[in-house]
Amino acid sequence: MTGGAPAEDLAAALRRTLGYSASAAELAEVAALLEATADLPAHCPFTAPACDYDPRRSGGCEE
Amino acid sequence: MTGAPQPDIAAASAGIEAGRLSPVALTEQALSSAEMAAHLNVFITLMPDTARSEAAAAESRARAGRRLGPLDGIPIALKDVLATAGVRTTAGSRVLAGFVPDLDCPVVATLRQAGAVILGKTNMHEFAYGVTSDNPYYGAVANPPFPRHIVGGSSGGSAAAVAAGIVLGAIGTDTGGSIRIPAAATGLWGLKPTHRLMPGEGVLPQAWSLDHVGPMARSASDLRLMLSPWQAALPEAKRTRAIAIPADLLESGAPTHRRMFESLLSKVPSEISLHSIRLPDMGAAYACWLTILLAESAAYHATTMRRTPDLIGADLRPFLLAGSLISAERYLHAQRLRRDWTRRLDEALGDADALLHPTLPAPVPARGADSVQIDGHRVSLREALVRYQWPANLSGWPALAFPLGAAGADDPPFSAMLTARPTRELSLLDLAERLAKAAGKVSRTTEG
Q1: Which portions of chain A are predicted below pLDDT 70?
Q2: CA-based nearest distance A25→chain B, Å
Q3: Looking at CA atoms only, how far is residue A26 from chain B in angstroms?
Q4: How many CB atoms are closer than 10 A to CB B368?
Q5: Which of B251, B271, B281, B364 sits between 20 and 30 A of B30, alpha carbons compared?
């Protein structure tokens, strides 16, 4: 789900995933936070596993 | 401040070694200072009994000429996310108010093996999810040297414990600046080391792949000593010849604050060359960091959010709700893109040894402020203070916040941040000392 989703969709998703009834103010904050993640590219250019991240190696997946 | 000023770690350690200073007396002074400072809400749990027995053991070792190292007999404090055997570990929350771990986490075990005297567990923003350390259950942490300003967070109690002169060093954690922001607010040195240099096991997480454990102290030499139990994993310091200045970060800061930083740059020693660079794809990188932060913290708190959400503070609940709606696909994309971005950061740094910029995009906000003015725009406190922090959490590279010049009568000194490639902590500390010495006093302003 992304920040562009209508508030009623966010509310329904939160009831489904957590059984939580969010207030209108909470829904607005949730929408803003999800919107702030929207710049994440839709596709990863690499095919390496995602689980081997080691920040002490500065190189990319091809190493 | 509280009571008589404490010596720094190096001086205290030398005093203990020479028999001039008693760890027991040092610890009694620290406990007395902590009690006098109760109104500052620095500690959640003081540990007087174990601190006294640890100090007595350190004193016996010192008398027998068998000290365990430079931290033996030195009073320190721990952020209340580090598991301590038999001592409650709350993460500043109501959820874990009664949680008493069976074991010390590895960082605490290592510090005990080095002889450090653990005075207590420090107050913090609830579950490390904020930048003020205004805790609804354990009180708002004050900024002892600069009471008109926020203390910062989330490791606000650790910073306050050192800045108030209660302890000589403290341990904090940093997922998006939680060591560096309070260090800047209190005029301290705060190091977010390379990811997992200090292990994260047994440390209650905010977002485990972004969380870093690190020390806070009053000087570079004290940070070196706090880091000494983990120093074997680090190469020796290398003399820095080139520094990169991230132009895009500076452009997103308050103009007057940027000018103060530029006045600092004019004082960088001439043997160090300065290069302006642009950091790669900051929009996507921020989305990566935020996606990982939200998803991991939502996963950690999912059971509580399903069963007893009212036990979690209202200011952090929206983050956990948003995180619960992030798909596994987007989380995994974020973790993959993180590696690619870190590789491009390495390329952007080029021949430079370190990145240098202000720790914060604007002066330390006043206590009670909920936003910061940056270039005519009102920015939320959280967004403003995290703005320069998250890149080093995403990359896992070490980052050091350090004061430059003298503090004003009521204002913290200007704080700068250095970031370097993994394991270059000792080079960063040397470089920061050189810059601080060269900079002298940077003129102050409180305008955004």
Answers
A1: 1-3, 43-63
A2: 9
A3: 6
A4: 11
A5: B364
Rounded to the nearest angstrom, the minimum Cα separation between A24 and chain B is: 11
Whether a cis peptide bond, with omega within 30° of 0, leads into B327 is no
Record: contact B287-A39, CB cut-off 8 A: yes
DSSP string for residues in B63-124: HTT---STTTT-EEEEETTB-BTTB---TT-STTTT---SS--HHHHHHHHTT-EEEEEE--
The predicted-structure confidence for B333-354, as pLDDT tens digits, reads as follows: 899 899 889 999 999 999 999 9
pLDDT digits (tens, 9 = 90+) for B235-277: 999 999 999 999 999 999 999 999 999 998 999 999 999 999 9
Tens of pLDDT, residue by residue over B371-390, are: 999 999 999 999 999 999 99
A26: nearest CB among B321, B325, B397 = B321
Q: Which of residues 1 through 60 in chain A touch B, CB cutoff 8 A?
A: 1, 10, 13-14, 17-20, 22, 26, 29-30, 33-34, 36-46, 48, 50-51, 53, 55-60
Question: According to DSSP H, which parts of B308-405 are helical?
Answer: 317-324, 328-349, 381-386, 390-395
CA dihedral angle for residue B37, residue B1, residue B135, residue B226, rounded to 10 degrees: -100
Catalytic residue ranges of B: 79, 154, 178
* First vs last C-alpha separation in chain A: 33
Residues in chain A within 8 Å Cβ distance of B286 = 36, 39
CA distance B115 to B361: 38
Read off the pLDDT of each residue in B304-309 and give the average, rounded to a whole number: 97
Q: Does B336 sit within 8 Å of A37, measured CB to CB?
A: no
Token pair, residue A22, equals: 């969010």
> Which residue among B284, B302, B336 places its CB closest to the CB of A50?
B336
Contact residues on chain B for A61, CB-CB shorter than 8 A: 336, 339-340
Cβ neighbours of A6 (radius 10 Å): 10
